[in-house]
Amino acid sequence: MKIVIVGPSHPYRGGIAAFTDRLAMEFIKEGVDIEVVTFKLQYPSFLFPGKTQYSDAKAPEGFPIERKVNSINPLNWIEVGKEIRKKNPDIVIFTYWMSFFAPCFSKIAKVVKRNGHTKCIGLIHNMIPHEKSLLDKLFPPYFVKAMDGFVALSKSVLDDVKSFDKHAKPKCFVPHPLYDHYGEILSREEAIKRLDLDPNYRYLLFFGLVRAYKGLDLLLDAFADERLRKYPVKLIVAGEFYDDPKPYLEQIEKHCLQNLVIIQNQYISDDDVKYYFNTADIIGQPYKSATQSGVTQIAYHFEKPILVTNVGGLGEIIPNGKVGYVVEPNPSSIADALADFYENDRHDAFVEGVKEEKKKYAWSNMTEAILKLL
Q1: C-beta atoms surrounding 226 within 10 Å
Q2: How confident is the model over 53-75, as pLDDT tens digits?
Protein backbone atom coordinates (compact mmCIF):
# COMPACT_ATOMS: atom_id res chain seq x y z
CA MET A 1 0.00 0.00 0.00
CA LYS A 2 1.38 3.39 -1.01
CA ILE A 3 -0.29 6.62 0.12
CA VAL A 4 0.56 10.25 -0.60
CA ILE A 5 -0.89 13.01 1.61
CA VAL A 6 -1.21 16.46 0.03
CA GLY A 7 -1.66 19.32 2.48
CA PRO A 8 0.03 21.44 5.16
CA SER A 9 2.88 19.75 6.98
CA HIS A 10 6.20 20.69 8.54
CA PRO A 11 7.64 23.36 8.36
CA TYR A 12 4.15 24.92 8.40
CA ARG A 13 2.65 25.40 11.83
CA GLY A 14 -0.87 24.95 13.16
CA GLY A 15 -3.33 22.21 13.98
CA ILE A 16 -3.94 20.98 10.42
CA ALA A 17 -0.22 20.59 9.72
CA ALA A 18 0.09 18.72 13.01
CA PHE A 19 -2.82 16.49 11.95
CA THR A 20 -1.10 15.63 8.65
CA ASP A 21 2.14 14.68 10.36
CA ARG A 22 0.43 12.61 13.06
CA LEU A 23 -1.66 10.76 10.46
CA ALA A 24 1.47 9.97 8.46
CA MET A 25 3.12 8.59 11.60
CA GLU A 26 0.15 6.31 12.21
CA PHE A 27 0.29 4.95 8.67
CA ILE A 28 4.03 4.32 9.07
CA LYS A 29 3.32 2.37 12.25
CA GLU A 30 0.87 0.22 10.28
CA GLY A 31 3.42 -0.58 7.58
CA VAL A 32 2.10 1.74 4.87
CA ASP A 33 4.51 3.40 2.42
CA ILE A 34 3.69 7.05 3.10
CA GLU A 35 4.86 10.32 1.64
CA VAL A 36 3.73 13.89 2.32
CA VAL A 37 3.64 16.59 -0.35
CA THR A 38 3.24 20.02 1.19
CA PHE A 39 3.41 23.63 0.07
CA LYS A 40 6.33 25.70 -1.04
CA LEU A 41 3.83 28.56 -1.06
CA GLN A 42 0.74 28.01 1.08
CA TYR A 43 -0.72 31.51 1.34
CA PRO A 44 0.49 34.73 -0.25
CA SER A 45 1.78 36.73 2.71
CA PHE A 46 -0.93 39.39 2.35
CA LEU A 47 -3.61 36.74 2.98
CA PHE A 48 -1.98 35.46 6.18
CA PRO A 49 -3.03 37.36 9.33
CA GLY A 50 -0.41 35.98 11.70
CA LYS A 51 3.24 36.77 12.35
CA THR A 52 4.63 33.73 10.54
CA GLN A 53 3.37 30.63 8.75
CA TYR A 54 6.33 28.55 9.88
CA SER A 55 7.16 26.44 12.92
CA ASP A 56 10.59 26.29 14.54
CA ALA A 57 9.96 22.73 15.76
CA LYS A 58 12.01 19.81 14.47
CA ALA A 59 10.71 17.98 11.41
CA PRO A 60 8.92 14.70 12.16
CA GLU A 61 10.96 11.59 11.42
CA GLY A 62 10.12 8.41 9.56
CA PHE A 63 8.58 9.71 6.33
CA PRO A 64 9.60 12.13 3.57
CA ILE A 65 8.05 15.59 3.30
CA GLU A 66 8.45 17.33 -0.06
CA ARG A 67 7.70 21.03 -0.45
CA LYS A 68 6.23 21.13 -3.94
CA VAL A 69 2.84 22.86 -4.13
CA ASN A 70 2.39 26.51 -5.08
CA SER A 71 -1.23 27.31 -4.19
CA ILE A 72 -1.57 30.12 -6.78
CA ASN A 73 0.31 28.72 -9.80
CA PRO A 74 -1.80 26.49 -12.13
CA LEU A 75 1.28 25.32 -14.04
CA ASN A 76 2.71 24.09 -10.76
CA TRP A 77 -0.47 22.10 -10.06
CA ILE A 78 -0.06 20.20 -13.31
CA GLU A 79 3.61 19.55 -12.59
CA VAL A 80 2.90 18.28 -9.05
CA GLY A 81 0.08 16.10 -10.36
CA LYS A 82 2.40 14.48 -12.92
CA GLU A 83 5.07 13.85 -10.27
CA ILE A 84 2.59 12.13 -7.96
CA ARG A 85 1.07 10.19 -10.87
CA LYS A 86 4.48 8.70 -11.69
CA LYS A 87 4.68 7.32 -8.15
CA ASN A 88 1.45 5.39 -8.86
CA PRO A 89 0.10 5.55 -5.28
CA ASP A 90 -2.99 3.60 -4.27
CA ILE A 91 -4.44 6.65 -2.49
CA VAL A 92 -3.81 10.38 -2.50
CA ILE A 93 -5.33 12.07 0.55
CA PHE A 94 -6.08 15.77 0.15
CA THR A 95 -6.28 17.64 3.45
CA TYR A 96 -9.02 20.20 2.85
CA TRP A 97 -10.09 23.05 5.12
CA MET A 98 -10.88 26.11 3.02
CA SER A 99 -12.20 27.00 -0.43
CA PHE A 100 -9.05 28.86 -1.45
CA PHE A 101 -7.32 25.52 -2.04
CA ALA A 102 -10.11 23.86 -4.06
CA PRO A 103 -8.79 24.78 -7.54
CA CYS A 104 -5.26 23.72 -6.66
CA PHE A 105 -6.23 20.38 -5.13
CA SER A 106 -8.84 19.52 -7.75
CA LYS A 107 -6.38 20.07 -10.62
CA ILE A 108 -3.67 17.98 -8.96
CA ALA A 109 -6.20 15.19 -8.36
CA LYS A 110 -7.42 15.20 -11.97
CA VAL A 111 -3.87 14.93 -13.30
CA VAL A 112 -2.98 12.14 -10.86
CA LYS A 113 -6.03 10.05 -11.72
CA ARG A 114 -5.07 9.83 -15.38
CA ASN A 115 -3.00 6.80 -14.39
CA GLY A 116 -6.23 4.84 -14.04
CA HIS A 117 -5.17 3.45 -10.67
CA THR A 118 -4.99 6.09 -7.92
CA LYS A 119 -8.04 6.99 -5.84
CA CYS A 120 -8.28 10.49 -4.36
CA ILE A 121 -9.86 10.98 -0.94
CA GLY A 122 -10.78 14.30 0.61
CA LEU A 123 -9.98 14.48 4.32
CA ILE A 124 -12.30 17.31 5.29
CA HIS A 125 -11.59 19.47 8.34
CA ASN A 126 -13.99 22.18 7.13
CA MET A 127 -15.98 22.10 3.92
CA ILE A 128 -16.98 25.72 4.44
CA PRO A 129 -14.57 28.01 6.33
CA HIS A 130 -15.55 29.79 9.53
CA GLU A 131 -15.00 33.17 7.86
CA LYS A 132 -17.22 32.78 4.80
CA SER A 133 -16.66 34.40 1.40
CA LEU A 134 -17.93 34.27 -2.17
CA LEU A 135 -15.34 31.56 -2.89
CA ASP A 136 -17.32 29.13 -0.70
CA LYS A 137 -20.04 28.89 -3.35
CA LEU A 138 -17.80 28.90 -6.41
CA PHE A 139 -14.86 26.63 -5.59
CA PRO A 140 -15.92 23.63 -3.42
CA PRO A 141 -17.88 21.89 -6.23
CA TYR A 142 -14.65 21.56 -8.25
CA PHE A 143 -12.89 19.88 -5.35
CA VAL A 144 -15.79 17.56 -4.55
CA LYS A 145 -16.11 16.50 -8.19
CA ALA A 146 -12.39 15.61 -8.35
CA MET A 147 -12.50 13.32 -5.28
CA ASP A 148 -13.47 9.63 -5.20
CA GLY A 149 -14.51 9.65 -1.54
CA PHE A 150 -14.49 11.67 1.66
CA VAL A 151 -13.69 11.40 5.36
CA ALA A 152 -15.23 14.18 7.46
CA LEU A 153 -14.12 15.00 11.00
CA SER A 154 -17.60 15.91 12.25
CA LYS A 155 -21.18 15.11 11.31
CA SER A 156 -21.85 18.75 10.48
CA VAL A 157 -18.94 18.73 8.03
CA LEU A 158 -20.24 15.49 6.52
CA ASP A 159 -23.57 17.23 5.90
CA ASP A 160 -21.72 20.09 4.19
CA VAL A 161 -19.92 17.63 1.92
CA LYS A 162 -23.22 15.99 1.00
CA SER A 163 -24.63 19.36 -0.01
CA PHE A 164 -21.95 19.66 -2.73
CA ASP A 165 -21.81 16.00 -3.81
CA LYS A 166 -24.32 15.27 -6.58
CA HIS A 167 -23.13 11.70 -7.17
CA ALA A 168 -23.39 10.08 -3.70
CA LYS A 169 -19.70 9.23 -3.55
CA PRO A 170 -18.47 7.08 -0.63
CA LYS A 171 -18.09 9.14 2.51
CA CYS A 172 -17.90 8.64 6.25
CA PHE A 173 -17.56 10.51 9.53
CA VAL A 174 -14.62 9.77 11.83
CA PRO A 175 -14.12 11.97 14.90
CA HIS A 176 -10.91 13.97 15.13
CA PRO A 177 -8.36 11.67 16.84
CA LEU A 178 -6.37 12.64 19.91
CA TYR A 179 -3.56 15.13 19.54
CA ASP A 180 -1.20 12.97 21.58
CA HIS A 181 2.12 14.30 20.31
CA TYR A 182 2.46 17.28 22.66
CA GLY A 183 4.11 15.37 25.47
CA GLU A 184 3.14 13.55 28.62
CA ILE A 185 0.78 14.52 31.42
CA LEU A 186 2.65 16.53 34.04
CA SER A 187 1.83 17.44 37.59
CA ARG A 188 -0.03 20.72 38.03
CA GLU A 189 2.80 21.92 40.26
CA GLU A 190 5.46 21.32 37.63
CA ALA A 191 3.43 23.03 34.88
CA ILE A 192 2.59 26.09 37.01
CA LYS A 193 6.22 26.46 38.02
CA ARG A 194 7.34 26.34 34.39
CA LEU A 195 4.87 29.10 33.44
CA ASP A 196 5.79 31.12 36.54
CA LEU A 197 2.19 31.30 37.76
CA ASP A 198 0.77 31.60 41.26
CA PRO A 199 -0.02 28.08 42.59
CA ASN A 200 -2.66 29.52 44.91
CA TYR A 201 -4.95 30.18 41.94
CA ARG A 202 -6.90 27.79 39.76
CA TYR A 203 -6.86 28.34 36.01
CA LEU A 204 -9.37 28.30 33.17
CA LEU A 205 -7.68 28.01 29.75
CA PHE A 206 -8.69 29.50 26.40
CA PHE A 207 -6.17 28.07 23.94
CA GLY A 208 -5.35 28.67 20.30
CA LEU A 209 -5.42 31.42 17.71
CA VAL A 210 -7.83 34.19 18.71
CA ARG A 211 -10.41 34.77 15.99
CA ALA A 212 -13.87 36.30 16.19
CA TYR A 213 -15.75 33.02 15.73
CA LYS A 214 -14.01 31.46 18.74
CA GLY A 215 -16.02 33.62 21.14
CA LEU A 216 -13.39 34.95 23.53
CA ASP A 217 -15.67 37.96 24.04
CA LEU A 218 -18.41 35.60 25.31
CA LEU A 219 -15.97 33.96 27.71
CA LEU A 220 -14.77 37.30 29.07
CA ASP A 221 -18.34 38.41 29.76
CA ALA A 222 -19.04 35.08 31.45
CA PHE A 223 -15.83 35.24 33.48
CA ALA A 224 -16.96 38.59 34.90
CA ASP A 225 -19.84 36.82 36.67
CA GLU A 226 -19.80 37.63 40.40
CA ARG A 227 -20.23 33.97 41.35
CA LEU A 228 -16.71 33.24 40.09
CA ARG A 229 -15.16 35.90 42.29
CA LYS A 230 -15.71 33.67 45.33
CA TYR A 231 -12.93 31.42 44.04
CA PRO A 232 -9.25 32.11 43.40
CA VAL A 233 -9.54 31.49 39.64
CA LYS A 234 -7.83 33.19 36.72
CA LEU A 235 -8.34 32.96 32.97
CA ILE A 236 -5.37 32.24 30.69
CA VAL A 237 -5.69 33.29 27.05
CA ALA A 238 -2.84 31.49 25.27
CA GLY A 239 -2.57 32.09 21.54
CA GLU A 240 -1.75 34.63 18.88
CA PHE A 241 -4.44 37.22 18.16
CA TYR A 242 -5.58 37.10 14.55
CA ASP A 243 -8.11 39.79 15.51
CA ASP A 244 -7.37 43.25 16.84
CA PRO A 245 -6.73 42.68 20.58
CA LYS A 246 -7.95 46.16 21.53
CA PRO A 247 -11.68 45.31 21.92
CA TYR A 248 -10.79 42.36 24.15
CA LEU A 249 -8.49 44.48 26.29
CA GLU A 250 -11.23 47.12 26.62
CA GLN A 251 -13.64 44.38 27.65
CA ILE A 252 -11.22 43.18 30.33
CA GLU A 253 -10.87 46.74 31.63
CA LYS A 254 -14.65 47.29 31.58
CA HIS A 255 -15.15 44.24 33.80
CA CYS A 256 -12.16 45.11 36.03
CA LEU A 257 -10.50 41.79 35.22
CA GLN A 258 -6.98 43.13 34.64
CA ASN A 259 -5.56 41.09 37.52
CA LEU A 260 -7.55 37.96 36.69
CA VAL A 261 -6.85 37.50 32.96
CA ILE A 262 -3.42 36.42 31.74
CA ILE A 263 -2.83 37.04 28.03
CA GLN A 264 -0.07 35.32 26.09
CA ASN A 265 -0.44 36.93 22.67
CA GLN A 266 1.87 34.57 20.81
CA TYR A 267 1.84 31.28 19.00
CA ILE A 268 2.38 28.56 21.61
CA SER A 269 5.19 26.25 20.55
CA ASP A 270 4.64 22.50 20.50
CA ASP A 271 7.07 22.10 23.40
CA ASP A 272 5.08 24.51 25.60
CA VAL A 273 1.55 23.21 24.93
CA LYS A 274 1.79 20.65 27.73
CA TYR A 275 2.51 23.31 30.34
CA TYR A 276 -0.65 25.29 29.59
CA PHE A 277 -2.94 22.26 29.54
CA ASN A 278 -1.47 20.67 32.64
CA THR A 279 -1.90 23.97 34.49
CA ALA A 280 -5.60 24.26 33.65
CA ASP A 281 -8.58 22.93 35.62
CA ILE A 282 -10.89 23.19 32.61
CA ILE A 283 -10.58 24.14 28.95
CA GLY A 284 -13.03 26.74 27.61
CA GLN A 285 -14.16 26.67 23.97
CA PRO A 286 -16.95 29.27 23.76
CA TYR A 287 -17.14 29.19 19.95
CA LYS A 288 -19.86 31.02 18.03
CA SER A 289 -19.48 28.66 15.07
CA ALA A 290 -17.48 25.48 14.65
CA THR A 291 -17.05 22.16 12.93
CA GLN A 292 -14.68 20.35 15.25
CA SER A 293 -11.57 21.44 17.09
CA GLY A 294 -8.10 20.09 17.67
CA VAL A 295 -8.09 21.91 21.01
CA THR A 296 -10.72 19.47 22.25
CA GLN A 297 -8.47 16.55 21.37
CA ILE A 298 -5.49 18.10 23.12
CA ALA A 299 -7.68 18.44 26.21
CA TYR A 300 -8.70 14.79 25.95
CA HIS A 301 -5.05 13.75 25.67
CA PHE A 302 -4.12 15.68 28.82
CA GLU A 303 -7.29 14.45 30.57
CA LYS A 304 -8.81 17.86 31.18
CA PRO A 305 -12.51 18.75 31.60
CA ILE A 306 -13.90 20.70 28.66
CA LEU A 307 -16.57 23.37 28.19
CA VAL A 308 -17.87 23.79 24.65
CA THR A 309 -20.77 25.63 23.10
CA ASN A 310 -23.51 23.79 21.25
CA VAL A 311 -22.43 24.79 17.75
CA GLY A 312 -21.30 22.72 14.76
CA GLY A 313 -19.77 19.43 15.77
CA LEU A 314 -18.29 20.48 19.12
CA GLY A 315 -21.02 18.88 21.21
CA GLU A 316 -20.84 15.58 19.29
CA ILE A 317 -17.87 14.34 21.29
CA ILE A 318 -18.48 16.02 24.67
CA PRO A 319 -20.97 14.04 26.78
CA ASN A 320 -22.57 16.82 28.81
CA GLY A 321 -22.14 16.25 32.53
CA LYS A 322 -19.60 13.44 32.05
CA VAL A 323 -16.45 15.12 30.74
CA GLY A 324 -17.60 18.73 31.00
CA TYR A 325 -20.34 20.97 29.63
CA VAL A 326 -22.15 21.63 26.38
CA VAL A 327 -23.79 25.04 26.72
CA GLU A 328 -25.48 27.64 24.56
CA PRO A 329 -23.18 30.26 23.00
CA ASN A 330 -24.01 33.12 25.34
CA PRO A 331 -22.29 34.55 28.45
CA SER A 332 -25.09 33.52 30.83
CA SER A 333 -24.96 29.82 29.91
CA ILE A 334 -21.17 29.78 30.00
CA ALA A 335 -21.12 31.50 33.41
CA ASP A 336 -23.69 29.04 34.81
CA ALA A 337 -21.50 26.10 33.80
CA LEU A 338 -18.31 27.61 35.21
CA ALA A 339 -20.06 28.47 38.47
CA ASP A 340 -21.32 24.89 38.73
CA PHE A 341 -17.84 23.54 38.01
CA TYR A 342 -16.21 25.47 40.84
CA GLU A 343 -19.08 25.56 43.33
CA ASN A 344 -19.66 21.82 43.17
CA ASP A 345 -16.03 20.82 42.62
CA ARG A 346 -16.72 18.78 39.48
CA HIS A 347 -13.06 18.51 38.45
CA ASP A 348 -12.19 15.00 39.66
CA ALA A 349 -15.42 13.41 38.43
CA PHE A 350 -15.02 14.98 34.99
CA VAL A 351 -11.40 13.80 34.76
CA GLU A 352 -12.55 10.23 35.30
CA GLY A 353 -15.11 10.70 32.55
CA VAL A 354 -12.44 12.09 30.22
CA LYS A 355 -10.17 9.09 30.85
CA GLU A 356 -12.94 6.75 29.76
CA GLU A 357 -14.16 8.82 26.81
CA LYS A 358 -10.72 9.44 25.27
CA LYS A 359 -10.42 5.74 24.40
CA LYS A 360 -12.75 6.36 21.44
CA TYR A 361 -10.35 8.63 19.59
CA ALA A 362 -7.50 6.40 18.45
CA TRP A 363 -5.66 7.27 15.24
CA SER A 364 -6.16 3.70 14.06
CA ASN A 365 -9.87 4.54 13.64
CA MET A 366 -8.90 7.18 11.09
CA THR A 367 -6.50 5.02 9.10
CA GLU A 368 -9.00 2.13 9.10
CA ALA A 369 -11.74 4.39 7.70
CA ILE A 370 -9.50 5.69 4.92
CA LEU A 371 -8.47 2.20 3.84
CA LYS A 372 -12.07 1.02 4.05
CA LEU A 373 -13.09 3.76 1.60
CA LEU A 374 -10.54 2.43 -0.88
Answers
A1: 8
A2: 777 778 888 899 999 999 999 99
